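User: I'm writing a short report section on ligand binding and want a predicted complex to refer to. Could you take this sequence and 4'-deoxy-4'-aminopyridoxal-5'-phosphate and write out the structure as tokens? A short remark afterwards would be nice.
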Amino acid sequence: MAVNRPAPTAATSVHEGILRRQSLRESAARTYARSLPIVPVRARGLTIEGADGRRYLDCLSGAGTLALGHNHPVVLEAIKKVLDSGAPLHVLDLATPVKDAFTTELFATLPRELADDARIQFCGPAGTDAVEAALKLVRTATGRQGMLAFTGAYHGMTAGALDVSGGATDVRVTRLPFPYDYRCPFGVGGERGAELAARLAAGVLDDPKSGVPAPAGMILEPVQGEGGVVPAPDSWLRRMREITAARSVPLIADEVQTGVGRTGAFWAVEHSGVVPDVMVMSKAIGGSLPLAVIVYRSGLDAWQPGAHAGTFRGNQLAMAAGAATLAFVRENRLAERAATLGARMLARLQGLAASHRCIGDVRGRGLMIGVELVDPETTAPDALAPPPAPRLAAEVRHQCLERGLIVELGGRESAVVRLLPPLTLTDEQADAVLDRFADALATAERSVRSRGVRAAPVG
Ligand code: PMP
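Assistant: Sure. The structure tokens for the complex follow:
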């Protein structure tokens, strides 16, 4: 397969100059910019074009934000309409027709039981702001402090959100094992592994000597995203709902990444029929612009006025773009489309796994897909699965980029290749993505084999 690299031109020197200045001037904390040396100048749908003229199929979609891909006409139209209307762009948290329409559209997508009794809080613009609001809400409503969270979780980068994410050590947070089937913490996997995880959660809450005081809430992702695309079994989610409801512990579903059709249902909790007490939403609800909200049962609305304020809670362009996106996904049944196309892509990837032992697991839901890469030559006697292969994964990402395909890595050791294409992906585009991925994998496997697949990735 031809590698996507044009001959050097004036455009490539513009591209290189911008990247060089970025590396000199921007923070060492920059992330995607390190593994994706792209200077996007134009984009439409699945495709991004760089300043050097190279074109890419974007299966990162703004970390799962772009339900309709880049610059979808209905999104652009909605933004233009606000701009042309003369409406103020900054309105704090005042009521506006644009916000009213967004709220109506969002409520129309919610599980009925929640929509009928819901309050919405507009938060600061990022997903992590809404996670903070959710944690503070349940702490205020219950008067308790502790929180139950899960291994492998990712909820954001502000202090409270970090505390409930997998890598943290906050004393107020009790971490329970997430039912990660491929690397089951109980060594059994399947329904049995999930049931054991649920029993442990119930046991921690009921044992007066567990050392865990009654918590203010439990926060979970229906499919762990950054944690490596790990779907929670529906039966386990229902158990979490029963366990929390029976003990008056509010259940917070973080749908920041899984929402708006991504997993094959409008909201991922719908697969299990679970209705949480709080839903955290961001990414796709802003139609590619920053927007974050929590929606919760009215009984939790114990805030004092101003208890969770912020200057940027009224992004009119994001609300208009978001309302247009929500309506388009609903009217065009894109959640169902994601379910069908996602199942087809998973099947093809499973076929690929049959001829590549370095593919340890292929999993996902809808168009949230993960391919866990492993070192098949090394097996610990008591391990369910071979160890992860982060260096191979980094090489696959690099080889994908060389072929004009943008993918991201996730998982505990960054060994899971993640595909998050727009829900508007066509069958032909899906084939093109998987052709490039298969070719990149074959090349990466060859080039890494001689050097050892487990060494830490560079950059
Ligand atoms: N929750 C989940 C499930 C996420 O995937 C993310 C971001 N990847 C966040 C919260 C944080 O969102 P943001 O980066 O917008 O703060």
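A remark for your report: The mean pLDDT is 94. The longest strand covers residues 359-365.
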